[in-house]
Design goal:
The chain is an alpha+beta fold. The chain contains 3 helices and 8 strands, in the order αβαββββββαβ.
Length: 132
């Protein structure tokens, strides 16, 4: 069975695992998902991740992060650009998420980066998701 939106599946698996209070979640790997996981780690939304080679496409195992009250660090994951309606922004219209408390993840000609990094590099791109 083919999947029409692998990025939405990635976000939904993380959202469901957080809701169920799992320690980690396994997600089918792709290059975009690896880069998104790297951004989530660098921004402090997850505690760590590894890529497990299963001989086919691989699996990304993401360890979720909770605070001292067992509440998830990620409050909301929102898919912005969808297969049926792509959402592109120029360098002058880069989104701010929760007044810069969250991040927007974009895919640009320079790769998958955050909106703040895109602003530093003075480029626009397709907005994949918001995380806060």
């Amino acid at each position: 069975m083919s999947m029409t939106d692998p990025i939405a599946d990635y976000l939904t698996r993380i959202r469901n695992a957080l809701h169920a209070e799992h320690k980690y979640v396994d997600i089918p790997a792709s290059n975009v998902k690896r880069k998104m996981s790297k951004i989530l780690l660098e921004q402090g939304f997850i505690s760590r991740y590894i890529v497990i080679d299963d001989g086919v496409q691989g699996i990304i195992r993401i360890w979720l992060k909770y605070d001292e009250l067992k509440k998830p660090v990620i409050n909301k994951l929102t898919r912005v650009s969808k297969p049926g309606r792509r959402y592109y922004v120029g360098k002058d219209n880069l989104p701010r998420v929760m007044n810069n408390l969250g991040i927007a993840i974009l895919t640009t000609p320079k790769g998958v980066i955050t909106a703040s990094e895109a602003k530093r590099q003075n480029i626009g791109g397709e907005v994949l998701c918001y995380v806060w």
